[in-house]
Amino acid sequence: MEIHLRGVEVQFPGMETPLLQIDNRRIESGSRLLIRGPSGTGKTTLLHLMTGLLDVHRGSLSVDGKRFREMSEAERCRWRREHVGLVFQKLNLLGHLTAVENVLLASPGSRISQDQAREALERLGVGGLADKPAYHLSLGEQQRVAVARVLARSPKLIVADEPTSSLDSINARMVMDALFGCTPETGTLIVATHDERIADRFSDVWTLGKVESS
Which of 26, 66, 136, 159 has CA 20 to 30 A from 126's CA? Predict the structure, then answer.
């Protein structure tokens, strides 16, 4: 899934200067991209732009030739549901549901089976917790459930915001192995993180905090 940003600018009310400025950037299908930079430089904002959760204030952004500005909110939601897997900083698990129920909930219309959901949890080392309510899980366990929720769907675009922030080194490596192995041949993986432990996994690194171009 290819993403192209041209003259993109984001500036929220009260800001003297734009939070994010991108001159020209193309992310090719099949890319494995790491986005890094200090807090407040727009990493999460950029992920939200790339998935149509937020509009650019100036410029244009297209994904596989589709411009979000030309799509209705319902069309964006349908596109995300069909093509995108999101791992948020706020994990958005429902505490009263079990781990496996949280994974299944992310795929409306029963597009994945109970067995597929459990297999995804096993890949992240939390298969034994599949039937426990999410509120009984540690933060690190919840983070792995959130990643499993994405893996079970094998989307064309995976966007992960700090997916290893609450994990020890062994589990961080397990999560990254799973993310790298999940996307199909032409699928795209984009990870934003402060975690230096995973930086060497990426050959394409994009550092925010300055005007970006390519």
Answer: 159
Protein fold of 3-93+155-213: Rossmann fold (3.40.50)
Place of tokens 């900083």: 89
Question: What integer pLDDT is reported at residue 102 of this predicted model?
Answer: 95
Mean pLDDT of 161-170: 93
φ and ψ at residue 132, rounded to 5 degrees: -95, 140
Query: By C-alpha distance, which of 140, 150, 148 is closest to 171?
Result: 140
Q: Give domain limits for the chain.
A: 3-93+155-213
- Say if residue 132 is exposed, middle or buried (CB neighbours under 10 Å; 0-12, 13-18, 19+): middle
Give the predicted TM-score (pTM) of the model: 0.89
pLDDT 10s digits, 124-139: 999 999 999 999 999 9
